[in-house]
Design brief:
This protein has about 70 residues and is an all-alpha fold. The chain contains two helices and no strands. About 0% of the residues are buried.
Length: about 70
Amino acid sequence: MAYLDPAAGRSREGRQTAAVTNAPAATAAAAAGATPTKAEYDALLADVNALRTKYNALLAAMRTSGQLAP
């Protein structure tokens, strides 16, 4: 168990995750009417995809630095 092994604990000290830039500003806005238009839907989909990309990049960086199991 690593928490009982001082050497294993020291080997992880000071390790940082590589920087991941912030997600871009949201482009979607509230729907103008009761039913969203295709353009409104596409803007929301683009925002969700951008967040998904950033989230996956953060997870990958955490795995690389050893903060998250592969």
